[in-house]
C-alpha cells in the first residue's frame, strides 16, 4: 500500500470517533472489527490492555445495570497523519466530566480495512492544562506540518 491519502485519514478519524460512541463500545462484534487482532492499549490508568481484555471490560461496563449513562466526550485538537505506508496516527484531547486526557491511536490497513493496532491515553494534570509543551531543553516544543 502507498502512503495513506486524505480519504484514508478521514476514514481513520471517523473510525476513531466511532470508538467513543457508547453503542459501539457496547458491541463486541463491532469492536472485533475495529480492533486489530494484535491490539494493545496503555490506558490513562496505566493499565495495559489487549484486544480480548478491553472488549470484555467494555461489554461488562455496558451490561452493568447500576451504571449511569456516561456523559458525552468533548474532543479537541483532533489530527490524523500518515506515518508510514498503511499506518495512520490519530491524536486528540478528550474531556469527560472535567478529566482531560491526551489520546493517540495507530491505525493500520490490513485485510481490506482499517483497524486500530495501538491506543494510549495519558491524563493531563490540571497544573499542565495551560502550560505549553516543552521539548526537553526547557523551550516550548514546536510542530511543523
TrEMBL record:
Q: What is this protein called?
A: Nuclear transport factor 2 family protein
Domain DUF4440: start-end pairs: 15-115
Spell out the InterPro entries in the cross-references: DUF4440 (IPR027843), NTF2-like_dom_sf (IPR032710)
Amino acid at each position: 500500500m502507498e502512503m495513506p491519502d486524505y480519504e484514508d485519514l478521514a476514514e481513520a478519524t471517523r473510525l476513531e470517533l466511532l470508538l467513543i460512541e457508547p453503542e459501539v463500545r457496547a458491541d463486541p462484534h463491532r469492536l472485533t472489527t475495529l480492533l486489530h487482532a494484535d491490539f494493545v492499549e496503555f490506558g490513562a490508568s496505566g493499565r495495559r490492555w489487549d484486544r480480548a481484555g478491553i472488549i470484555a471490560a467494555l461489554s461488562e461496563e455496558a451490561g452493568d445495570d447500576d451504571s449511569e449513562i456516561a456523559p458525552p466526550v468533548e474532543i479537541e485538537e483532533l489530527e490524523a497523519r500518515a506515518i508510514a505506508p498503511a499506518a495512520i496516527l490519530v491524536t486528540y484531547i478528550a474531556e469527560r466530566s472535567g478529566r482531560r486526557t491526551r489520546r493517540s491511536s495507530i491505525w493500520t490497513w490490513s485485510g481490506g480495512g482499517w483497524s486500530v493496532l495501538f491506543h494510549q491515553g495519558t491524563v493531563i494534570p490540571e497544573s499542565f492544562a495551560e502550560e505549553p509543551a516543552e521539548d526537553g531543553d526547557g523551550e516550548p516544543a514546536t510542530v511543523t506540518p
